[in-house]
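Lab notebook, bench 4. The sequencing result for the construct came back, and we need a structural model before the next group meeting so we can plan mutations. Quick request posted to the team channel:

Model the 3D structure of this chain.
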Amino acid sequence: MSGTTEGQSAPTEEAVADELIPEDVQPTEPAAVAVRPEDLGLDLPDDPAEAQQVLMGALLASRQEAGEYFETMQRVAAEFDNFRKRAERDRIELVLRATQRLVTDVLPTLDSFDAALAYEPQTPAEEKILDGMRSTRAGLLDLLQAEGLEPISAAGAPFDPAVHEAVSGPTAEGNGHLVVATELRRGYVLAGRVLRAALVTVEHTEEQGG
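Done. Here's the predicted structure in token form:
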């Protein structure tokens, strides 16, 4: 059994490792890589001062070239980001236009429902039919509202030529503001855009005394 005798110190870990690892696999310091001027494409003069100037000029040119590459990369990245945003806007616009065409085709059906529901039922059977029509219209309107369709406020609202189309004006002189008197056909906006203006009649509000 091996050990240390009295008066001898225990071998260190490094000494033990040196004994266990063969000499041909002992770690060595990495060799310095010698870079020659011609490896860099430089032809240096023999004068050290002139050689230093050549090296400094080459370094400056390399930095300028790197800066130009970096600016080019930044420009390409910005152009790609703008392209991505533009493509996303185009996609949203395309979807909106397709939705607009579809909803526009459905508006006459909503008008038919509105006209039918304005009828006063005369019998329980007619009331039952109208109840079914109300339910169907409500379901259809819910689907369209999920796509961004909203009715335009009309009767009693201040007249707004951007969303109201007046088919007749005030029947009497007045100095008050114009308001919608009656709604002849409902108007709608889709995703904030006027899809169809409301057909209305207008009248003056009564001017408040001071």
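The first strand starts at residue 149 and ends at 151.
Will bring this to the meeting.
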